[in-house]
Amino acid sequence: MGARQILVHGIDDDTVPVSQSQTFVEKAEKLGDRSTLVKLDGIGHYELIDPESEAWPTVAVPVLSLLGIEP
């Protein structure tokens, strides 16, 4: 895709396995994309989109960095 990618995935996600994000990042890197996976221990599927969850500050940092905003 040619765009910087940061995937954030909860290790305890029982909806989408973390292996899906790991495989994506591996393939993206082989194709020359700059892709990073941030894995969060103790976090499930929905905490990543809940601004009131304990995961939110960790999620916000890479999102803001992609937008060029210093957290």
Descriptive keywords:
71 residues, alpha+beta
Please summarize the sheet with the most strands. 2 strands, parallel
Tell how many strands the DSSP assignment holds: 2
Distance separating the two termini: 26 Å
**Lateral arrangement of strands in the main beta sheet:** 1-2
Number of helices in the DSSP assignment: 2
Average of the residue pLDDT scores: 92
- Classification by helices and strands: alpha+beta
Percent range of helical residues: 25-40%
Strand content: 15-25%
Give helix and strand order, one letter per element, not per position. Answer: EHEH
- Overall outline: flat
- The parts where pLDDT drops under 50 for at least 5 residues are none
- Rounded radius of gyration (Å): 12 Å
How many structural domains can be distinguished in the coordinates? 1
